[in-house]
TrEMBL record:
Keywords: GTP-binding, Membrane, Nucleotide-binding, Transmembrane, Transmembrane helix, Transport, tRNA processing
Organism annotation: Scytalidium lignicola
Main localization (coarse): membrane
Protein's recorded name: TrmE-type G domain-containing protein
One term under GO cellular component: membrane
Compartment(s) where it occurs, according to its Swiss-Prot or TrEMBL record: Membrane; Mitochondrion
A Pfam family: AA_permease_2
Amino acid sequence: MSGKPEFLSGDDNDKEVEKSKYGVQEASDDPEYAGEQTTSIIEGHTKHDQHDMWRMGKIQELRRNYRALSAFCFASVLTAVWEFLLFANTQGLIDGGLAGLFWSYVWTFIGFSFVILSLAEMASMAPTSGGQYHWVSEFAPPKYQKFLSYVTGWMSVLSWQAGNASGSFLTGTIIQALIGLNNPDYDPKNWQGTLFVFAMVLILFICNVWGAHLWPKLQNGLMVLHIFGLLAVIIVLWVKAPHQSAKNVFTGFTNEGGWNSIGLSLMVGQITGIYSLVGSDATAHMAEEVEDAGRYVPISIFWSYIGNGIMAIIFLITYLFAISSVDDALNDPSGYPFIYVFRTALPNSGVNALTIIVLVIVIAANISFNASTARQTFAFARDKGLPFSKWISHVNSNSQIPVNSVALTCIFTILLSLINIGSNVAFNAIISLQIVALMMTYACSISCVLYRRIIHPELLPSARWSLGKWGILVNSIGLAFVTFSFFWSFWPNTIPVDAESFNWSVVLSKARFCSQNGFLRFGSTPMIWARAYTLKSSFTPQAEFTKTYTPSSRYHNQVLAPHDVDLVDDTIYALSTAPGRAGIAIVRISGPSCLDVYRSLCPGKAIPKPRHASLRSLYDPSTTRQNILDSDALVLYFPTPNTVTGEDVLELHIHGGPATVKAVISAIPKCASQFPIRYAEPGEFTRRAFQNNRLDLAQVEALSDTLSAETEQQRRAAVRGNSGRLGRTYEEWREQLLYARGELEALIDFSEDQHFDESPAELLTSVASQVKIMLKSIEAHELASHRGELLKKGIRISLLGPPNAGKSSLLNQIVGREASIVSQEAGTTRDIVEVSLDVRGYLCSFADTAGLRTQNDGKSTPHTTIGHVEQEGIRRAKAKAGESDVVVALASVEPSLDQSGWSIWYDLETLSIAANAAESIIVINKTDNVSAETLSRLTEDFKASVSDIAPIRDIPIVAISCKSAQSRTTPALNDLGNINHFLDALVMTFQSMTSLPPDLKDLLGVTQRQRELLEACSGHLLDFMDEAQISNDEDSECDIVVAAEHLRAAANCLSRITGRGEASDVEEVLGVVFEK
């Protein structure tokens, strides 16, 4: 079964998503999206997104159009805090006055920041459009998981739908207020306000369906308008409006609501601040459309809240100073205090202009709010939490937008606005649910993550934007503030209460809760939440599945200890620098006895400050400060856990004389300690780093390559492999296969007594879509491995050509010494002469071979009889060329057969071998025999004569003269003989053989061992794909047990790469790798 939560399993077993509709797309080539993280094969879908969606059991259906900046601007414009404070501040002025509105906003902004921090972290843990209800399902106790998640989902849907309606209604009423301002005889009617809502809904639908792909690109411009709109308002009000005194603004509390005290009035009036700040989590519901959502969604949520909050404080101070009379503002005919304030500063035309600027921003916020609401509704329907879920969660295959969900959201707003025609009170009662319901979702999700953080912190999913050690404190304060705000959300604006002033949210919340509970109990069948989130999430499964899927036995990474556990308590030491005479030697000590060693070698001296070098004299621990081992040693202490081995580490930098080194090393095991102190085994420091998760096995192998690197390109490849990215990638693949295998085995174990929403064939198809993506990635790693091996083991180059063409002379010029015997006698080289050297950073192995010539062939080389010894040399030369990575085919400028001029002599078989080689270069030697013009003519004749015989058209041709090169006197200043030009051509060939795109360069660190295991893993995955293909054949039935076994074998191959997991021979692998 899939890892999606399911609310209404019923009898409808149709798949929620047709995976084939959303075929795999190639990654974008746009440089804006380039970089290490955008290495996924789905557009805008990074490897982190892919992993998050897999873990949460979701399929990527929506296009990720939002990047980091556009997501931040989206969040900022949507919440539009200062704009909504401007339009909706009536309750704050009634209950609290000028000072009450200001200070209640300030404490709300501070208190709500802890809520935002908590939501942002959860958005990083599980970046899904579902938001709060999904987070509850991940973090709630298993016993209450289904109920709490379901209730939270309904609360979230209805609160966002109510908020969407209130935004459109607010826009319509402000337009009516502007009409009344310009036409005093205008009498606003409810039905007219409803028509304005209809117009607003039409704009929302058009922008969020046909303009959806353009909307992310407009966010930056809307952000500019959001900022400059604020500047326009505050400049006008500071310059033109009459001003209150600072005393009235900051200390002038009033109570116009009829409450018993100013304090109680302030508590009721704080709803203005709360209303302006809610909805900051909107970007979380757009998470499946944000690139690298686990990182940028929480950043957008938090920093947009901070930026908007500060802008709102600046605005609020300006606005409150500009209210010359609170009573007049509250009694303004328009019904909006801000229009009164604008009228005191500007004529009607100015009021219109300033209001329209703000209104445009609010309309943009409504469009974004509608998009976020539709995504939240889509997500809840995708998990079958709503009636008609299949229709609501449908995603248009062309636009990749949940059009039905957008339409439903618009229809819901229209239906609510119709209520306004009959009763304004009823309409306001319904939309009053927004704050109450949203506060309930905040409280439920934060309390669940706090529970998980306290009870089972080890099971929290990793977050790339984490609260760390402050998590419990931040969550606790956030939960307390949400509870506080929730309580005051039910209070009416004023007393005594009538039907219009009554806060109907308390009645409607109770009614909604009862209806949800009834729908949950009577409208759904038992669900399989435990398996769904045990396999895709990180919390403890319910009891009925614990026996099979306990995290400790299957889903937590197992690090296989390479030695007996008792040896972990040993303290080890070794000489870390090369043995022999040197200016300095470093002795490294690792283990629990590091400080004991220090106290014995440096008696009476204070422990050095961590990671700071301290000058010390080292003494023999068997004597009492009588025998000085080294008088000027540097000692460095590195406390656990952030050390090279993950243990306490002590480094002794001593003089490098052999006697001093021997004395210090001999003294270390004499130090007093409760733990054994012994000399380290080969590779044991690295082994401990692996055991303590300081290095993964791919980094260990890269470390070996780094230590053995002899050329610049070897060093670069080794450094790439040492980044840790390879190990993380392979571990993610292994975990994905374990999750998929767990799903299949759950179906095997419980298919008889549990209801599943997918058949075995559908499940295999679902898993196969993920395996297909993995196979493409493995293919890229295998290709990169071949290229990396060329850098590590060296590029093999064969010099091939007819006798006396200059092969040996060219080799000697490259090497810089006489590596091969050179003479005028044809066939001097009978066997292969091989030389390895560094050519501009590339390790190369050159092979000088016997001259090739074809007996009785008068077209290219003179007629010659070939002896048996020379034939054997030619056979070996051809075999060597077949093994080589690059073939250099030589020809030479020689007198023509009739001695009438010059021609280029060549061997046809040599050229044929070069043409069929993977990489090759043609070199024409002895160019010193002719002028440049003659050489050019001869080269063209050569190309023409062999073009029909050997396809050499694309092979580079380089003209050289080994004779001229031998006579050069200043090699650094000239290139006589053109040898450097030949080397340039050779290096360009090397670069084309070993280059990778920038985002794949880390793959150069893939080793041959890893490649062989990846090939084996790929084979098992292809076997799985064959089994999955059988499931699509109506005449055949797939064997799900065999399919699960293929996944197990593939995961075991990855276990052998990472050194973690269940593979039976991982221990043997570790031993081989560490001893290197």
